[in-house]
Protein backbone atom coordinates (compact mmCIF):
# COMPACT_ATOMS: atom_id res chain seq x y z
CA UNK A 1 0.00 0.00 0.00
CA UNK A 2 1.65 3.19 -1.18
CA UNK A 3 -0.10 5.37 1.39
CA UNK A 4 1.69 3.46 4.15
CA UNK A 5 5.11 4.32 2.75
CA UNK A 6 6.95 6.79 4.94
CA UNK A 7 8.44 9.91 3.35
CA UNK A 8 11.92 8.98 4.58
CA UNK A 9 11.57 5.67 2.69
CA UNK A 10 10.62 7.52 -0.50
CA UNK A 11 13.48 10.00 -0.16
CA UNK A 12 16.09 7.27 0.30
CA UNK A 13 19.71 7.09 -0.86
CA UNK A 14 18.71 6.21 -4.42
CA UNK A 15 16.22 9.10 -4.67
CA UNK A 16 18.84 11.47 -3.25
CA UNK A 17 21.43 10.19 -5.73
CA UNK A 18 19.09 10.86 -8.66
CA UNK A 19 17.59 14.14 -7.42
CA UNK A 20 20.04 16.71 -8.74
CA UNK A 21 19.98 17.44 -12.47
CA UNK A 22 22.41 20.40 -12.60
CA UNK A 23 21.35 23.02 -15.15
CA UNK A 24 18.32 21.00 -16.34
CA UNK A 25 14.71 20.29 -15.33
CA UNK A 26 13.86 21.95 -12.01
CA UNK A 27 17.56 22.82 -11.61
CA UNK A 28 17.55 24.90 -14.84
CA UNK A 29 18.61 28.53 -14.27
CA UNK A 30 15.35 29.76 -15.80
CA UNK A 31 13.43 27.81 -13.11
CA UNK A 32 15.64 28.59 -10.12
CA UNK A 33 16.64 32.22 -10.77
CA UNK A 34 13.13 33.76 -10.58
CA UNK A 35 12.42 31.81 -7.37
CA UNK A 36 15.60 33.05 -5.76
CA UNK A 37 14.98 36.64 -6.85
CA UNK A 38 11.44 36.64 -5.41
CA UNK A 39 12.44 34.85 -2.19
CA UNK A 40 15.31 37.28 -1.59
CA UNK A 41 12.86 40.16 -2.06
CA UNK A 42 10.34 38.59 0.36
CA UNK A 43 13.06 37.95 2.97
CA UNK A 44 13.50 41.74 3.03
CA UNK A 45 17.06 41.62 4.35
CA UNK A 46 16.25 39.05 7.10
CA UNK A 47 16.95 35.33 7.58
CA UNK A 48 15.14 32.57 5.69
CA UNK A 49 14.12 29.06 6.75
CA UNK A 50 13.35 26.44 4.10
CA UNK A 51 11.00 23.61 5.12
CA UNK A 52 11.99 20.36 3.31
CA UNK A 53 15.22 21.85 2.01
CA UNK A 54 16.19 18.69 0.12
CA UNK A 55 19.62 18.88 -1.51
CA UNK A 56 19.60 22.68 -1.52
CA UNK A 57 18.31 23.32 -5.05
CA UNK A 58 16.87 26.68 -3.93
CA UNK A 59 18.65 27.27 -0.61
CA UNK A 60 22.18 27.22 -2.03
CA UNK A 61 21.62 29.91 -4.70
CA UNK A 62 19.54 31.92 -2.20
CA UNK A 63 22.42 31.83 0.30
CA UNK A 64 24.82 32.79 -2.50
CA UNK A 65 22.56 35.82 -3.08
CA UNK A 66 23.39 36.91 0.48
CA UNK A 67 20.27 35.67 2.34
CA UNK A 68 21.22 33.62 5.45
CA UNK A 69 19.33 30.32 4.98
CA UNK A 70 18.63 27.48 7.42
CA UNK A 71 16.80 24.26 6.58
CA UNK A 72 14.62 21.51 8.03
CA UNK A 73 14.64 18.18 6.22
CA UNK A 74 13.40 14.68 7.00
CA UNK A 75 15.67 12.63 4.76
CA UNK A 76 19.26 12.00 5.88
CA UNK A 77 20.38 10.96 2.36
CA UNK A 78 19.03 14.27 0.94
CA UNK A 79 20.85 16.11 3.74
CA UNK A 80 24.07 14.25 2.97
CA UNK A 81 23.88 15.50 -0.63
CA UNK A 82 23.27 19.04 0.59
CA UNK A 83 26.17 18.92 3.07
CA UNK A 84 28.49 17.71 0.32
CA UNK A 85 27.69 20.86 -1.68
CA UNK A 86 27.36 23.68 0.86
CA UNK A 87 27.67 24.63 4.52
CA UNK A 88 24.01 25.53 5.09
CA UNK A 89 22.80 25.03 8.69
CA UNK A 90 20.17 22.28 8.75
CA UNK A 91 18.12 20.40 11.32
CA UNK A 92 16.94 16.86 10.60
CA UNK A 93 13.24 16.40 11.32
CA UNK A 94 9.63 16.83 10.32
CA UNK A 95 8.75 20.30 9.06
CA UNK A 96 5.36 20.15 10.84
CA UNK A 97 6.93 19.83 14.29
CA UNK A 98 10.70 20.45 14.29
CA UNK A 99 11.98 23.63 15.93
CA UNK A 100 15.03 25.56 14.82
CA UNK A 101 16.79 28.20 16.92
CA UNK A 102 16.08 31.83 16.23
CA UNK A 103 13.52 33.86 14.33
CA UNK A 104 13.22 34.38 10.60
CA UNK A 105 11.64 36.96 8.32
CA UNK A 106 10.77 34.27 5.75
CA UNK A 107 9.80 30.59 5.84
CA UNK A 108 9.27 28.94 2.46
CA UNK A 109 8.02 25.55 1.27
CA UNK A 110 8.21 24.93 -2.47
CA UNK A 111 7.75 22.26 -5.14
CA UNK A 112 4.33 21.01 -3.89
CA UNK A 113 5.93 19.62 -0.75
CA UNK A 114 3.16 20.56 1.69
CA UNK A 115 1.28 17.73 -0.08
CA UNK A 116 3.79 15.25 1.36
CA UNK A 117 2.03 15.74 4.70
CA UNK A 118 -0.88 13.34 4.25
CA UNK A 119 -3.43 14.69 6.70
CA UNK A 120 -5.12 18.04 7.06
CA UNK A 121 -4.00 18.16 10.71
CA UNK A 122 -0.33 17.80 9.72
CA UNK A 123 -0.68 20.48 7.07
CA UNK A 124 -2.25 22.87 9.59
CA UNK A 125 0.59 22.02 12.02
CA UNK A 126 3.05 22.91 9.27
CA UNK A 127 1.50 26.39 9.00
CA UNK A 128 1.65 26.72 12.79
CA UNK A 129 5.29 25.66 12.77
CA UNK A 130 6.06 28.28 10.12
CA UNK A 131 4.34 30.92 12.29
CA UNK A 132 6.37 29.84 15.36
CA UNK A 133 9.61 30.55 13.51
CA UNK A 134 8.64 33.94 12.14
CA UNK A 135 9.14 37.43 13.48
CA UNK A 136 6.02 39.59 13.64
CA UNK A 137 5.32 40.67 10.06
CA UNK A 138 7.22 37.62 8.73
CA UNK A 139 6.11 35.71 5.64
CA UNK A 140 5.36 32.09 4.81
CA UNK A 141 5.58 31.29 1.08
CA UNK A 142 4.13 28.17 -0.48
CA UNK A 143 4.52 26.94 -4.06
CA UNK A 144 1.84 24.39 -4.87
CA UNK A 145 -0.03 22.86 -7.80
CA UNK A 146 -3.76 23.43 -8.23
CA UNK A 147 -5.58 20.08 -7.96
CA UNK A 148 -6.43 18.97 -11.50
CA UNK A 149 -9.82 17.46 -10.73
CA UNK A 150 -11.49 19.35 -13.59
CA UNK A 151 -9.49 17.07 -15.95
CA UNK A 152 -10.80 13.91 -14.25
CA UNK A 153 -13.90 12.61 -16.11
CA UNK A 154 -16.63 10.79 -14.14
CA UNK A 155 -15.67 7.17 -13.54
CA UNK A 156 -11.93 7.75 -14.12
CA UNK A 157 -9.42 7.93 -11.29
CA UNK A 158 -6.09 8.45 -13.06
CA UNK A 159 -4.50 11.24 -15.11
CA UNK A 160 -1.31 11.30 -17.14
CA UNK A 161 0.69 14.32 -16.01
CA UNK A 162 3.75 13.94 -18.21
CA UNK A 163 5.32 11.96 -21.03
CA UNK A 164 8.56 12.04 -22.99
CA UNK A 165 12.27 11.17 -22.78
CA UNK A 166 11.53 7.56 -21.78
CA UNK A 167 9.35 8.73 -18.89
CA UNK A 168 5.67 8.57 -18.03
CA UNK A 169 3.93 10.21 -15.09
CA UNK A 170 0.49 9.11 -13.88
CA UNK A 171 -1.47 10.43 -10.89
CA UNK A 172 -4.10 8.16 -9.33
CA UNK A 173 -6.78 9.88 -7.27
CA UNK A 174 -8.74 9.02 -4.15
CA UNK A 175 -11.20 11.91 -4.18
CA UNK A 176 -12.88 10.84 -0.94
CA UNK A 177 -9.66 11.11 1.08
CA UNK A 178 -8.29 14.00 -1.01
CA UNK A 179 -5.20 11.95 -1.82
CA UNK A 180 -3.29 11.22 -4.98
CA UNK A 181 -0.32 9.01 -5.73
CA UNK A 182 2.15 10.26 -8.34
CA UNK A 183 3.68 7.37 -10.28
CA UNK A 184 6.90 8.15 -12.13
CA UNK A 185 7.84 5.45 -14.68
CA UNK A 186 11.22 5.53 -16.39
CA UNK A 187 11.78 3.12 -19.28
CA UNK A 188 15.07 1.57 -20.33
CA UNK A 189 15.74 0.08 -23.77
CA UNK A 190 14.40 -3.40 -22.91
CA UNK A 191 11.38 -4.64 -20.98
CA UNK A 192 12.46 -3.14 -17.68
CA UNK A 193 10.89 -0.02 -16.20
CA UNK A 194 11.72 1.83 -13.02
CA UNK A 195 8.86 3.11 -10.86
CA UNK A 196 8.86 5.59 -8.02
CA UNK A 197 5.67 6.59 -6.24
CA UNK A 198 4.86 9.52 -4.04
CA UNK A 199 1.58 9.79 -2.09
CA UNK A 200 0.29 13.30 -1.51
CA UNK A 201 -2.66 15.10 0.02
CA UNK A 202 -3.77 17.66 -2.54
CA UNK A 203 -4.95 21.02 -1.24
CA UNK A 204 -7.18 23.68 -2.72
CA UNK A 205 -5.99 27.29 -2.62
CA UNK A 206 -9.01 28.24 -0.47
CA UNK A 207 -8.23 25.44 1.99
CA UNK A 208 -4.63 26.62 2.16
CA UNK A 209 -5.83 30.15 2.97
CA UNK A 210 -7.96 28.79 5.82
CA UNK A 211 -4.97 26.85 7.20
CA UNK A 212 -3.06 30.12 7.09
CA UNK A 213 -5.76 31.90 9.06
CA UNK A 214 -5.85 29.10 11.67
CA UNK A 215 -2.14 29.72 12.25
CA UNK A 216 -2.57 33.49 12.56
CA UNK A 217 -1.57 34.53 9.01
CA UNK A 218 -3.22 36.97 6.62
CA UNK A 219 -3.06 36.10 2.92
CA UNK A 220 -0.78 38.69 1.27
CA UNK A 221 -0.58 37.66 -2.40
CA UNK A 222 -1.14 34.80 -4.83
CA UNK A 223 0.48 34.60 -8.25
CA UNK A 224 0.66 31.95 -10.94
CA UNK A 225 4.46 31.89 -10.86
CA UNK A 226 7.55 33.42 -9.30
CA UNK A 227 7.60 36.39 -11.69
CA UNK A 228 4.23 37.71 -10.53
CA UNK A 229 2.06 36.26 -13.33
CA UNK A 230 -1.66 36.65 -12.72
CA UNK A 231 -3.34 33.69 -10.98
CA UNK A 232 -6.39 32.71 -13.05
CA UNK A 233 -8.87 29.83 -13.36
CA UNK A 234 -6.44 28.22 -15.81
CA UNK A 235 -3.35 28.44 -13.57
CA UNK A 236 -1.88 25.02 -12.81
CA UNK A 237 0.08 26.15 -9.79
CA UNK A 238 0.49 29.11 -7.50
CA UNK A 239 2.93 30.94 -5.31
CA UNK A 240 1.03 32.08 -2.23
CA UNK A 241 2.39 34.47 0.37
CA UNK A 242 1.02 34.56 3.93
CA UNK A 243 2.05 37.19 6.42
CA UNK A 244 1.90 37.48 10.20
CA UNK A 245 0.51 40.76 11.47
CA UNK A 246 3.20 43.01 12.94
CA UNK A 247 1.45 42.85 16.35
CA UNK A 248 2.62 40.54 19.17
CA UNK A 249 -0.85 38.97 19.59
CA UNK A 250 -0.68 37.21 16.25
CA UNK A 251 2.29 35.13 17.34
CA UNK A 252 0.64 33.80 20.49
CA UNK A 253 -2.19 32.28 18.40
CA UNK A 254 0.34 30.01 16.70
CA UNK A 255 1.83 28.71 19.99
C1 LIG B 1 10.44 17.43 -3.97
S1 LIG B 1 11.69 17.46 -2.74
C2 LIG B 1 11.93 19.21 -2.59
C3 LIG B 1 13.31 19.57 -2.08
C4 LIG B 1 13.64 21.04 -2.19
N1 LIG B 1 12.74 21.86 -1.41
C5 LIG B 1 13.59 21.49 -3.64
O1 LIG B 1 12.77 22.33 -3.97
O2 LIG B 1 14.37 20.96 -4.43
C6 LIG B 1 10.74 17.06 -1.29
C7 LIG B 1 11.57 17.00 -0.03
O3 LIG B 1 10.68 17.02 1.08
C8 LIG B 1 11.24 16.23 2.10
N2 LIG B 1 10.18 15.93 3.05
C9 LIG B 1 9.06 15.18 2.85
N3 LIG B 1 8.28 15.20 3.93
C10 LIG B 1 8.91 15.97 4.86
C11 LIG B 1 8.60 16.38 6.19
N4 LIG B 1 7.47 15.99 6.78
N5 LIG B 1 9.47 17.18 6.83
C12 LIG B 1 10.61 17.59 6.25
N6 LIG B 1 10.97 17.23 4.99
C13 LIG B 1 10.12 16.44 4.30
C14 LIG B 1 11.80 15.04 1.34
O4 LIG B 1 12.70 14.30 2.13
C15 LIG B 1 12.40 15.74 0.15
O5 LIG B 1 13.74 16.12 0.40
Automatic annotation (TrEMBL):
Q: Which GO terms describe its molecular function?
A: methyltransferase activity
Please name the GO terms of the biological process aspect recorded for this protein, alphabetically. Answer: methylation
Checking Gene3D superfamilies in the record gives: Vaccinia Virus protein VP39
Task: Kindly indicate whether the keyword Transferase belongs to this entry.
Answer: yes
Q: Which UniProt keywords apply?
A: Methyltransferase, Transferase
Which residue spans adopt a coiled-coil conformation according to this UniProt entry? none
Task: Specify whether Transferase is a keyword of the entry.
Answer: yes
Entries under InterPro entries matching the protein: Methyltransf_25, SAM-dependent_MTases_sf
User: Which residue ranges does the record assign to the Methyltransferase domain?
Assistant: 49-138
Q: Which protein are we looking at?
A: Methyltransferase domain-containing protein
Amino acid sequence: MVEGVRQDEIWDAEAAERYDTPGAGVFAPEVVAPMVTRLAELAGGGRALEFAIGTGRVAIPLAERGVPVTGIELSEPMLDRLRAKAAIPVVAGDMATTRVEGRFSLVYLVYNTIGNLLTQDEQVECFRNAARHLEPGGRFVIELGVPELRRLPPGQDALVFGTGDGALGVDTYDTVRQHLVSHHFTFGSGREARLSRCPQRYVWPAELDLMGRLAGFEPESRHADWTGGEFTAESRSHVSVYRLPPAEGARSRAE
